[in-house]
Design a protein that fits this description.
The complex is a heterotetramer, with 2 copies of chain A and 2 copies of chain B.
Chain A lengths: L1 E5 L1 H7 L3 E4 L4 E2 H11 L9 E4 L2 E2 L5 E2 L4 E5 L6
Parallel strand pairs in A: 1-7
Antiparallel strand pairs in A: 1-2, 3-6, 4-5, 4-7
Chain B lengths: L3 E4 L5 H8 L6 E8 L3 E2 L2 E10 L1 H18 L4 E7 L1 E4 L3 E9 L2 H18 L2 E7 L2 E4 L13
Parallel strand pairs in B: 1-5
Antiparallel strand pairs in B: 2-7, 3-4, 4-6, 4-8, 5-7, 8-9
Helix pairs in contact in B: 2-3
The chains are: A alpha+beta, B alpha+beta.
């Protein structure tokens, strides 16, 4: 299981702030494919994925227990 | 207070300026970002900020380390407020101390630019006729709305 | 307080930040210049500032007008303290508000540069082994004193 | 009569913070000559002269009643 967090505009798209899903030993790229199937359009949102509070590369592997966040373009300040 | 934090209560800027002050500092710059009433001709009623708090605080601290590495002798503290903010409320404060003034300005401006690049905080603008999470360039308020 | 003033009491920076804040301001920069303990390897015990007060206040206001003319939508307040100042005491505070942050930094830095050019205020450094009015380049402390 | 003010390093040189002198309808340049005779070295101090709280040009005329200040290189901030 991994924990998924959705923020701001992405949360509006998913309709939920977070969820737990079965996912392990797959890459960030795989997660994008899974997410875009479940939440069409999420991939075109310019969001980035963070794994355990660090921005991740498409080839990074996600392990069970990881906390993953979809980070839409930030607008703090 | 912590040197790098996301808060829900009103920001007291002086706390952060005091935090970075030290005997070798000749200059302290304190930047405060405020909720502005008008943006590109559109009147903001208020803002709502949201953050991925643990990662945001980690990234703020990372920016602080970047600065202290890049400009010798600097010290940095940053806070960002989340929740509903009214016009003129402080959304962000950046305090930088430095032996010399040029660095204090430069490093402070660097901090706000980096915050806008990497810190997971989002702003929702609430206008008279709607609201929108800011960040997605395609949906920014347009001048012709006026 | 006045927007442009020479004072003898400790400076409270927030007063000047509050003074320049307005609904159209998205950014406020607050610069404080502090008495630094070490300058070029020489240890300062304390400083004494002197001003030609009426002219200094006039020139500070002139700098404020220069900025408000040069950068649209800015508002400025400046105070300089005189008398004996200890390490870390605030000698000068500059507050600038602006709709946008870039201008707030730029205008603030412009103010301190202009203060150092035209405002009749003088600093005397008091070291362990002497004292000197600063300004005459020929007599600045030298690194080899250490 | 005009009022003369001396500040910082210039005050150290003159030994007094101010004085009143008979001087009118002469220029700033004339005042420099007078001052350098009374206080040798004052002219080489890089000071500027302000008349009624404004920096003056060598050709500016000083009138009776004016307030004149010798402004050594400033070092505020």
């Amino acid at each position: 299981m991994i924990e998924l967090h959705y923020f701001a505009g992405i949360r509006v798209l998913t309709g939920i702030p977070k969820e737990s899903v079965n996912f392990s030993n797959q890459t960030v790229e795989d997660l994008w494919k899974w997410a875009d199937e479940k939440y069409p359009g999420i991939r075109n949102s310019s969001a980035r994925i963070a794994v355990n509070e660090e921005y991740a590369l498409p080839s990074d592997v996600i392990e069970s227990g990881d906390v993953v966040a979809f980070i839409p373009p930030v607008s703090g300040g | 207070m912590k040197a790098f934090e996301v808060v829900t209560e009103p920001i007291i800027p002086q706390l952060y300026a005091d935090y970075v002050l030290r005997p070798e500092a000749g200059a302290v710059t304190l930047f405060t970002g405020h909720v502005r009433e008008w943006t590109k001709g559109v009147r903001t009623l208020y803002l709502a900020y949201e953050a991925y708090v643990p990662m945001a605080e980690k990234k703020l601290a990372e920016i602080g380390r970047e600065i202290e590495d890049k400009w010798e002798g600097t010290s940095v503290a940053i806070a960002h407020r989340i929740g509903e903010l009214q016009i003129s409320d402080i959304a962000v404060v950046i305090a930088v101390s430095s032996p010399h003034r040029k660095t204090a300005y430069e490093a402070n401006e660097y901090a706000i630019e980096r915050i806008k690049e990497i810190v997971p905080i989002w702003k929702k603008e609430i206008w008279e006729d709607g609201e929108e999470w800011i960040g997605d360039q395609k949906k920014k308020p347009k001048e012709e709305i006026v």
